[in-house]
Design goal:
Blueprint: H1 2-22, E1 27-30, H2 31-48, H3 58-75, H4 77-88, H5 98-120, H6 131-141, H7 150-181, H8 183-193, H9 202-206, H10 212-224, E2 231-234, E3 239-248, E4 254-260, E5 265-268, H11 270-275, H12 277-280, H13 323-340, E6 341-345, E7 349-352, E8 358-361, E9 372-377
Antiparallel strand pairs: 1-9, 2-5, 3-4, 6-9, 7-8
Helix pairs in contact: 1-2, 1-13, 2-7, 3-4, 3-5, 5-7, 7-10, 7-13
The structure holds protoporphyrin IX containing FE (HEM).
Length: 380
Amino acid sequence: MGPDMWYAVNNVVSRLHSSIEAKGGERELNMLDWTATSTLDVIGRVAFAHDFQQGQSPEALSIMEGWRKQASLGMQWEGFLALLALRQFPVIGKLPLPAIKAQSNIKNTVRPLASQLVQRGVSDVEHGRDILSILLRANVGAEKEKRIPDEELLDHIVTFVIAGHETTSVVLNFTLYALAQNPAIQKKLRSEVMSCDTEPTFDELWSSENFPYLDAVTREGFRLFPPASRNEKVAEKDDVLPLGTPIVGTDGRLIHEIPIKAGQVIHIPAIAVNRFSSVWGDGDVFRPERWIEKEGIPNGKFIPGAWSGMLTFLVGPRSCLGYRLAVFEMKILLMAFIRAFEFEPVEEIETRMSATIQPRIVSRPEEGACMPLRLRPVSA
Ligand code: HEM
């Protein structure tokens, strides 16, 4: 998937470059528009060989608008509560509530697109590297009862677009903001990624050896800014939740475990766990060096996460299926953006909870999800 990712990301970077040059070589812009464009273009190509035309096709605009609406509604109380209530009372999903309609808009856009490709049999099923071609190929060779029905294939594609687009865009946004706030870290990263002018492959980027600082910045971004900042799981049976550190009950006695009843909903605050001071020390600080220093992770007390001892991709059999893709993509995006532009903060940003975490301007909350940054092309 590497060449497809580089192709999509380079296109967005060069469009952004032209738009900045047209404004005289410096521009303030809402970075959300550009990060969402990049990740949608990447997922379109790698999930079902579709070109979202650098976020300019009607479908791309509709998906991005759907997300923006959903994110902004989720930041308000009524939207946040509607989504929470949906878990408890699924029938609410049938009501014409804006927060719920915004979610189905995305599905309504992606499904017909994927359906056209399935019906056409996809242009290059034999060699296609995208996920849909791989699934279709597996279907051709499989016994009849093991084939994935078309309807299910379409749902998979919708899931990939929903799970793989906004999430990666969120981490990239907040990481770029953190780099904008920390010019010395940004400079150090640029110096490392400028030391190579090729487009590294998955193997070259997956290992932390070739680009140790890029690896450290990526890990720090994923740790501090998990898009799915809180998750829910439902206990299938009565169980007992052991506590790492005992807590004092109202009667003054120490509690070492919590009994759980079947059906009980457990909230998993990934963003809080990823920042625990007891594990990370200065857990709220953006400090990529912690991943390089010998004693960077105090006492080696890693959380059992699917990747890199953090809960960003959760853990266990239902953890994120696309985490390698997401980490690889993030490294490509950071490399391409940092090679091309210098980033400066414009406004103070706060982090808001929604379906994914969202940035909001502290002094102008009415503008909804927004990440203004000042960009300048990196001089030769
Ligand atoms: C920054 C990027 C990403 C983050 C933080 C992320 C995070 C997560 C999390 C926390 C879950 C578990 C949800 C739950 O159990 O409640 C999940 C599930 C999933 N993710 Fe990701 N994800 C990312 C990117 C991707 C990408 C790029 C893809 C694929 C194209 C993907 C595909 C999936 C799928 C298919 C599941 C469902 C797995 C299952 O239920 O068995 N994700 N993701």
